[in-house]
Design goal:
Oligomer: heterodimer
Order of helices and strands of chain B: HHHHEEHHHHEEHHHHEEH
Strand content of chain A: under 5%
Number of strands of chain A: 4
Strand order of the largest sheet of chain A: 1-2
Helix content of chain B: 55-70%
Structural class of chain A: mainly alpha
Shape of chain B: globular
Largest interface: A-B, 86 and 93 residues
Largest sheet of chain A: 2 strands, antiparallel
Distance between the termini of chain B: 63 Å
Radius of gyration of chain B: 24 Å
Structural class of chain B: mainly alpha
Strand content of chain B: 5-15%
Strand order of the largest sheet of chain B: 1-2
Largest sheet of chain B: 2 strands, antiparallel
Order of helices and strands of chain A: HHHHHHEEHHHHHHEEHH
Number of domains of chain B: 1
Chain lengths: 338, 471
């Protein structure tokens, strides 16, 4: 298989596949983590149950993208996986433990009404910590990690800086925005009205976060600065903030017009633009400023072997994931009928 | 150097702890998913209500076990990077793709159809719902296929080369996937999962038969489980024997540790039934042994010579006491399972399957034995692979992340606390569900009997509610 004649660049393709998996994760698990983040603000009873019901059938599939992102990184870019994971050891462990709490809460809160408040806390805290840890992990990667040989060479608290706190909080706020707009789309009556208000506030907070992170990132390293401000790359890079501004305008307009689905889709659009911005900062590195996707790439045979499967399987996965969403489409009512 | 060792030992403890905890859930859910598919098929085929009752009854259990399996499984996939970074760098190009295929062919399949299986019967109809159940059951098997292939490659690496960066690279993927120990390990593990599930189902049936021998659901589940035990236990022993012979061929040191053979036996090795292996003295103290029986089992000849650990460099010895004892626990429980199967057949022939209380009590006692046996077997094969991660090629001490011991210790403590609290609660909920006898009109996944009107889950306005699915 390794000798199969291919003229395209496998590491680039895999970089896009991994990026796709990570973005698919953000799109799908972002809103359901967001609902967990908003959970304490929802009324005990109908509101919480409706919010939970709207994601119960799909959360497991959503989190599988996280496994594909991590597993795919190990398989396609093992060197990057080996350096990045120890570098963000504490946030990753915190995220994993937080996901344990929130994952089991889906089942446990139904099974144990006497302790439901406790599992609601587990769900909310787990979701919030997982989101925060993901933001911290991203920030830690962006601010750079110390490498020694083929290993991580820094300490186990290197990730903890003001910048990573900022990125952590930003992801929490961003996911909460996705959660609020998801509730607008999927619920009715009082819960939907609450969600509109949350989306308004969170929309503003998200804009502040985007500005803050965007302002801080180029000054983390000279390379980022070059990407964003040097001539002529600024011609391309500048389109991203422009589009972000347009999307923000459209987002608030759709909120004020009372659209149902559009706020969620525009919030996702904002995430996509930020994700592209991230790509502009990093690409073609996979460990920012240090290791390129070609240096970290698994041997050609490994990437080719997986690509054959991914090319066939990922479209199939997307098809039946879409089917699962389709089965559970429509409004989740705010009133119980029985 | 000492610090380094400490961090590695802690990382090994952490992996052993998290993987053992994790393995409990798939060992149960692989079998249970298949059992649910069989129950639903029987219901669709015969129309007998009892099969639907049992389907709903076990579906609630499955939902909890599966959720715990998912969240503890995510931990595993990331732990390769956090704690075993050098291993990930070196072996990632070979076992990474196998795990990526597991995600793409199994995890998404399970997760994608789980929602339909749990909540969707009224939304998609019986046939599509059955397809979803089959998809989940198939997914659990495919998952076992890939992860056991990856594990087996670490035990018996094949089809690989090593590049200039020191990474393993695949030269022949078919040889990598179907490496020498894989077929045996796959069959042995999947049967173990079926046995584990049948013992839990059997114990549950027996528990309720002791209280009400006329409960139709309890009778049917007990009968089905005892059939499974009677068929799978003897098959498992034969498969285990074949697996052992395969191990003898490819990982002789592991078999030496299982047998407690520190010394070579040129004219027939004894079968050590019990004893206290002393790694430092390289001998098994207080041993009770059957002369030449080990050679008979492993070589099918009383006088066949068997090499001992004295033929293996000491730095390549696995820790014999652990492997020795975990192997005996597994085999001993396997024999008890066989006994349960045989006794149930006798009771069936005598027509007293549903009345004979000693059998029911025996079945209850054996309820958790599958989990213990599965963990013991896993310990045998994993600890028996030591001191290597990739057998004979990559040492465990050379596989770990460059982490400080406090970092690993802190995360290990966090895992222990969280796992015992969270999964302890989950097991408690499962036991509580099992304590209710199956009954006609068994509630569905969203309609637990404890749920009152005020906390009834919400209906979807465009169709029947998830909560109505199984009412």
């Amino acid at each position: 298989m390794a000798s199969f004649p291919v003229s395209f660049d496998l590491p680039t393709i895999w970089a896009f596949v991994i990026a796709f998996a990570i973005f698919a994760y953000v799109v799908m698990d972002g809103f359901d983590l967001g609902i967990g983040i908003l959970f304490p603000t929802l009324q005990v009873g109908h509101e919480r149950d409706a919010a939970m019901n709207s994601i119960a059938p799909v959360w497991d599939g959503n989190e599988t993208w996280l496994v594909l992102g991590g597993g795919g990184l190990m398989a396609a870019f093992p060197l990057a996986f080996a350096i990045i994971m120890p570098a963000i050891y504490a946030p990753i462990i915190a995220m994993l433990l937080a996901l344990v709490f929130r994952g089991v809460a889906f089942e446990f809160r139904w099974r144990d009404p006497a302790h439901r408040p406790l599992w609601d806390i587990a769900f909310a805290a787990g979701s919030t910590i997982a989101a925060f840890a993901q933001g911290v992990a991203l920030g830690a990667l962006l601010q750079g990690v110390i490498i020694s040989g083929r290993n991580y060479g820094g300490g186990w608290w290197d990730w903890a800086t003001p910048f990573t706190m900022l990125t952590g909080i930003s992801v929490v706020i961003g996911y909460a925005l996705l959660g609020a707009t998801w509730l607008i789309m999927r619920t009715e009556f009082s819960l939907q009205q609450h969600a509109y208000r949350y989306a308004q506030v969170l929309g503003i907070a998200t804009v502040i976060c985007i500005i803050a992170v965007s302002a801080a990132t180029p000054f983390l390293s000279n390379a980022y600065y070059q990407r964003w401000f040097a001539w002529p790359s600024i011609l391309i890079a500048a389109q991203v903030p422009l589009l972000v501004a347009i999307f923000i305008y459209l987002f608030f307009r759709s909120l004020n017009r009372g659209d149902h689905a559009l706020p969620f889709l525009l919030a996702l659009g904002l995430f996509l633009l930020n994700f592209i911005g991230l790509g502009i900062s990093i690409y073609p590195h996979i460990v920012p400023n240090q290791i390129t996707i070609w240096e970290a790439a698994a041997p050609r045979g490994s990437q080719m072997f997986m690509l054959v499967g991914a090319a066939v399987l990922i479209p199939i996965i997307l098809a039946y994931t879409a089917y699962a969403y389709w089965v559970f489409r429509g409004k989740v009512g705010a009133e119980g009928y029985h | 150097m000492f610090d380094q060792f400490d961090a590695i030992f802690l990382a090994r403890l952490q992996f052993a702890f998290t993987v053992s905890f994790h393995f409990i859930f798939p060992a149960f859910s692989i079998g249970l998913a298949s059992y649910l598919a069989v129950l639903e098929a029987l219901w669709l085929w015969t129309g007998r209500e009892v099969f639907l009752t049992l389907f709903k009854y076990w579906l609630k259990i499955f939902a909890i076990a599966f959720a715990m399996g998912v969240v503890s499984g995510i931990v595993m996939s990331y732990q390769f990077g956090t704690n075993w970074a050098v291993f990930s760098d070196k072996a990632g190009p070979v076992i990474g793709p196998l795990m990526a295929y597991e995600v793409m062919t199994a995890f998404f399949l399970e997760a994608g159809f789980l929602g339909v299986m749990l909540f969707g019967m009224n939304k998609v109809g019986r046939t599509l719902h059955f397809v979803a159940t089959l998809a989940v059951a198939t997914g659990t098997f495919i998952s076992a296929f890939w992860i056991l292939s990856a594990n087996s490659w670490m035990q018996t690496p094949a089809g690989y080369g090593i590049n200039e960066a020191g990474q393993f690279i695949a030269q022949d993927w078919l040889k990598v996937i179907f490496n020498p120990s894989f077929p045996y390990r796959l069959v042995h593990t999947v049967i173990a999962a079926y046995l584990t599930t049948s013992l839990v189902v059997g114990a549950t049936g027996a528990w309720h038969l002791l209280r009400d021998r006329d409960n139709e659901g309890a009778r049917v589940m007990f009968s089905m489980a005892m059939w499974m035990a009677a068929i799978a236990a003897p098959v498992q022993i034969l498969v285990g024997d074949a697996h052992g012979l395969n191990t003898l061929e490819h990982q002789p040191a592991k078999v030496m540790a299982m047998e407690g053979h520190y010394q070579s036996h040129p004219d027939g090795a004894p079968l050590i039934l019990f004893g206290l292996p002393d790694q430092n003295a390289a001998s098994v103290r207080y041993q009770i042994a059957i002369p030449k029986a080990s050679s008979l089992i492993l070589k099918h000849s009383l006088d066949a010579p068997l090499a001992g650990l004295d033929t293996v460099p000491r730095e390549n010895w696995p820790p014999v006491p652990v492997v020795f004892w975990s192997f005996r626990i597994m085999v001993g429980l396997g024999m008890l399972m066989l006994l349960l199967g045989v006794v149930s057949l006798i009771a069936r022939m005598r027509g007293s399957l549903y009345e004979w209380k000693p059998l029911h009590r025996f079945a209850i006692a054996m309820g958790p034995s599958g989990f213990v046996a599965v963990i013991a077997g896993w310990v045998t094969t994993e600890v028996g692979r030591q001191p290597f991660t990739v057998y004979g090629l990559l040492r465990t001490v050379q596989s770990a992340s460059p982490l400080d011991a406090p970092a690993v210790a802190a995360s290990l403590i966090a895992f222990i606390i969280v796992y015992f609290a969270v999964f302890g609660a989950g097991v408690w909920y499962i036991l509580r569900l099992l304590s209710h006898a199956p009954h006609r009109g068994e509630s569905g996944i969203e309609g637990a009997p404890t749920r009152t009107a005020g906390i009834t889950p919400i209906q979807q306005t465009d169709g029947p509610s998830p909560s109505g699915a199984f009412r």
